[in-house]
Specification:
It is built from eleven helices and 38 strands. By secondary structure, the protein is α+β, with helices and mostly antiparallel strands.
Length: 682
């Protein structure tokens, strides 16, 4: 098309202005967004496809003719004629020569072969761009993909669409999907903790990666001008808490292992992208700290009608569990796509519904439970979106930080040595020193951060982070299980946007992430000279009470005492590197109206004292005895957001200044402090 002279002049003027002021080229006028979803459900057995995957020349069916329900499972000889593969009695055809039978073991329990599909599982993806930088966020139905498999997804998307800046892949921690880790294989090792052979099916993981890559590409290709919205709310259903320190305080609760909640994350967060042209939903991301095991942990006695009306075991079904119900419900009400993205779910379990499964006298293990949970959470999300805040278009920035984590857990070291973690490889350095200067195998992992501007950031951590690690806790050094270990920084306090998303199991799966000083386990798990050996040894070596009678158990499913602290240190530094609104992080205590000091917002304080001498109090309080109040403000939570009153999530106080200025004071309760007496509030 021939351009007019005036258009050419305008184009030249714009080009000249951009050359004089490059910053103006980065003005973002709209977000772009697209979404997609691809099934990662295991395909049903198909004889023709099977012969292509496992040729007769490799696995002759006259020998290896055992029945199989799914694709991706290697042929075998059913020598005991029970219709399913069993180590020790049957003969596998090891077509890929990896030393094991590749089959679909469920993540819900050791030696639980998947038997049927109740509903589809997915790789869900959303692409977001500022016009120059594009990221893809994926949520995959899986218990947890290792960085090696996540990297294959990221490389696949970026290879097909080179303009993509970063790809972040999160697993939903679903336990009704094929084992991606390896510990759920067979046969049972005698303890019920792991199988003797890895449960990873190489053929299925290849399929999952392929489908996830396809979802990411489709999301990028579907991008259109969009409006971004965010909301925070309290969901109508709450996740249960594991009674483990420092999530709960067993000592304060009186009965060991049944303590009071101390550090949790009850927030529901939702990020929605809608089409700019008509407001139609593109993607609604629900970010929530919870496990996803309502079905995978069902007892064998729990059965439900399957294909053809046959009664089949619930814990051998493939299912998206309550996140699948949630996504389908939101999509039916809003259109477009929806996904669940797990948050900091360390020690935080599934939502509970008392009496959900009366036929098996249990609160979990039947399909009625995820149906109730998913639908209730969908209603909460849709309701919250009615008052969502619009996120102004802004330059999109994404960063990652890679580092190595020592593998200190003796149980995991043994599992790695025997090949259970089939897709996990040691870092190039292969051996590194832990905090005790002991040589350990080490693994590469990473943290990430996405900055959507001053209104929104997303923190990415590679495992099941305890809220006490990511959001902070009210505990002090003298209350710790192993006070000789250094306390890590709190990442959420260093992320300075008004709203935050917390992506758990992001780009890796390193297990539970616990602050180093709070990490305590039987010497069978880790021998650490820096920690006092005062455990009250139990018959189960993975469960112990420390010197303060605090209950510990999930440490046996972590890399060791250094892993969580390394994650928090790197994530906190990455968050701080983005800059933003200033804040103060300083040792101190909350002040009760009586003048008594406390570490806990849940005690009902009316002010806060910092070691700098600053005192912040609620309006109406002018002094504590003879000590005048420096500022008046309101209490704030771990994200630095104002609260109507102090509670379990309170981590400091917020002061409003002139002309919209805000000062945030985070109170670090961990160190011991020296201070004189305070009088009552006046």
């Amino acid at each position: 098309m021939k351009r007019s002279g005036s258009l050419c002049v305008v184009a030249a003027l714009i080009a000249g202005l951009l050359a004089l002021n490059p910053a103006s080229a980065r003005v973002v006028r709209t977000w772009l967004a697209g979404a997609s979803a691809e099934k990662v459900t295991p395909l049903p057995f198909d004889a023709k496809r099977d012969l292509l995957e496992f040729p007769q020349t490799v696995c002759p069916r006259q020998i290896f003719g055992g029945p199989r329900a799914f694709d991706f499972e290697e042929p075998y000889a059913d020598l005991n004629h029970d219709g399913t593969f069993s180590y020790g009695s049957d003969l596998p055809c090891d077509a890929n020569h990896n030393g094991r039978w590749d089959g679909l073991y469920s993540s819900g329990g050791v030696d639980h072969l998947t038997e049927w599909v109740h509903d589809d599982i997915w790789a869900r993806a959303v692409a977001i761009s500022d016009g120059a930088h594009t990221i893809v966020i994926e949520s995959v139905t899986s218990q947890g993909l290792f960085i090696e498999d996540d990297q294959r997804i990221r490389d696949g998307v970026r290879s097909a669409r080179p303009g993509v800046t970063r790809v972040f892949v999160s697993s939903t921690h679903n336990e009704s999907s094929p084992d991606p880790i390896g510990i759920y294989g067979a046969p049972d090792d005698g303890t019920g903790a792991a199988g003797v052979f890895s449960g990873v099916d190489d053929y299925y993981i290849h399929y999952l990666v392929t489908q996830a890559v396809r979802a990411g590409i489709e999301a990028v290709d579907a991008m259109v001008p969009a409006v971004m919205r965010v909301a925070e709310f309290t969901p109508s259903v709450r996740a249960r808490l594991s009674s483990t320190f420092p999530t709960t305080d067993a000592v304060k609760g009186g009965t060991p292992a049944f303590g009071t909640p101390e550090a949790t994350d009850t927030k529901g967060r939702v990020l929605q992208l809608v089409r700019r042209s008509d407001g139609a939903n593109i993607e609604s991301i629900f970010n929530f700290a919870a496990h996803n095991q309502e079905l995978g942990h069902a007892p064998d006695a729990s059965v439900a009608p399957g294909p053809g009306g046959r009664m089949l075991r619930v814990n051998r079904a493939v299912s998206d569990d309550w996140p699948g119900v949630f996504a389908r419900t939101v999509e039916s009400r809003l259109g477009g796509h929806a996904m669940f993205m797990v948050g900091d779910n360390g020690s935080i379990e599934d939502p509970a519904w008392p009496g959900a499964c009366p036929q098996i006298h249990s609160d979990e293990g039947c399909f009625e439970l995820p149906a109730h949970t998913g639908a209730a959470l969908a209603s909460s999300v849709v309701s919250a979106l009615s008052s969502a805040e619009t996120i102004s278009p802004h330059v999109l920035t994404a960063k990652i930080d890679r580092f190595v984590v020592p593998l200190q857990n003796q149980l995991f070291i043994a599992a790695f040595a025997t090949g259970l973690f089939a897709h996990r490889t040691a870092a190039t350095t292969s051996v590194c020193l832990d905090a005790s200067h002991l040589p350990r195998p080490c693994f590469l992992t990473e943290v990430g951060m996405v900055d959507f501007g001053p209104q929104l950031q997303m923190l990415v951590n590679p495992g099941e982070g305890y809220p006490a690690l990511i959001e902070g806790s009210p505990f002090g050094v003298e209350q710790m299980s192993c006070p000789g270990r250094a306390q890590p920084p709190v990442p959420a306090w260093h992320a300075r946007a008004a709203h935050k998303l917390e992506m758990g199991l992001g780009d890796d799966m390193i297990g539970y992430e616990i602050p180093g000083p709070a990490w305590f386990a039987d010497p069978l798990v880790v021998v650490d000279p820096s920690c006092p050996l005062s455990a009250q040894f139990q018959s189960d070596p993975t469960a112990d009470y420390d010197r303060r009678n605090e209950y510990h158990k999930l440490e046996s499913e972590s890399t060791g005492p250094d892993g969580g602290s390394l994650v928090a240190t790197h994530l906190g530094a990455l968050a701080a590197s983005f800059g933003g609104a200033p804040r103060t992080i300083m040792p101190g205590r909350f002040l009760m109206s009586s003048g008594v000091l406390t570490r806990r917002g849940a005690d009902g304080p009316v002010g806060m004292w910092l070691t700098s001498g600053v005192i912040v109090a609620l309006q109406g309080v002018s002094s504590f005895g003879g000590r005048p109040v420096t500022y008046h403000g309101v209490f704030m939570d771990f994200d630095g957001r104002a609260q109507s009153g102090p509670d379990i999530n309170t981590r400091g106080m917020l002061v409003y200044g002139r002309h919209g200025a805000v000062m945030r004071f985070f109170m670090d309760p961990y160190p011991m402090v020296n201070q004189g007496a305070f009088g009552a509030a006046r």
